[in-house]
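Protein folding task:
====================
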Amino acid sequence: MSTGALFLMGVFAVTVVIDMPIAFGLVLSCLAYLAVYDSAPMMVAAQQYVVGLDSFTLLAIPLFILAAQLMNGAGLTQRIVRLCAAIVGDIKGGLAVVAVLACLMFGALSGSGVADVVAIGSLLLPAMARSGYDKGFSCALVGSAGATSTIIPPSIVLIVYGTITDTSVGKLFVAGIIPGILLGLSLIGVAIWQSRKHNWAGGQPFSWPELRAAAVDALPALMVPVLIIGGIRFGIFTATEAASSAIIYALLIGFFWYRTLSLKSLWDNLKSTGESSASILLIIGASGLFAWVLVAEQVPQALSTLLVDWTDSKIAVLLLLTVVLLLLGTFMEAIPVIIIVAPVVMPVLAHYNIDPVHFGILLSINMAIGANTPPVGVDLMAACKIGGINMMQTLRPLSWMMLAMTAVMLLLTFVPELVLFLPRHVQ
């Protein structure tokens, strides 16, 4: 690896250690590299920053964020929780199972792990505390379940990955369905096991009339994934156009069906979307600049050569990349990791004939695990803030959930058909 690449990563490592915001650290390390090595005019940094944002597909990010805000404001979150509670009934640990199911369903609306955690956690964490659930367990469960939004469509993480690698976002969305369900089932298994072990309570007794009423009430929310995936699958619209359609749909049901949205709440949602989108896009632009420097220093070629000399095994390469991604996900948020790593590993994937859709899903699961791993752990941090506890209180129950998610990731690594079956037969 060249001295320029080592200098770049060294400066960035220092910015991480001193806890500088990731976006600023990425830009500063690139500017320092250009100043020291004089490989291009400083103006190029601004140009590459803008190039990193110049994508029609990336427009889907603020649109999906706004759609999720509107749906939450329209009361879809409460209706999803009610439906999940009606499905689960009063089985032992029922509230924990409801939390996982609700996170999976809301993830199909939001595409954001933090949004999922905040929306579902605000409703269920207080209820779980009142029912005697350990707060560390509850926060770890909601954080882990909320992180499945990085895999379940319309995942913002998958949109970013598809844009950077020129991989079909529609295929990535479809590919995330089975892995998302498997992750949910693994967390439900942990939730039921721990609940029975500690004798934690269930919810209300199962009732067919309540299930029918809850299903009818939640039907508009259940139609959103159908609108998004179905529209993309049948070529009616792209991912960005699907996001726009979801906004229109949310406005219609919020203003005219449930009549829970107002002009004031719409304005509040627009402001919140602007803040969230700006922070994400700021990081995307900075990460694009950083990735451009890595490519200019021929880091992808160097990594490809190193791995080719080391092994011929596709599985060994995937496992090695998994270890690297888990380490990066512990200290960085998902989007900068994706934008930095994806261009570097694409030549490696091509050499080993690894499907970029398969790798994209594995990468997303790695990021979901990282989003619940201290010291960063943004999803876990959000859950702990709502639950009013310290992250250290979640570590013991969290270890079982991370183990379950890692087991699913390894299963998908060794059995890629679980990821690729739907894209091959549905697209």
Summary: The radius of gyration is 21 Å. The CA atoms of residues 51 and 336 lie 15 Å apart. Residues 56-425 form one domain. The chain has a mean pLDDT of 87.
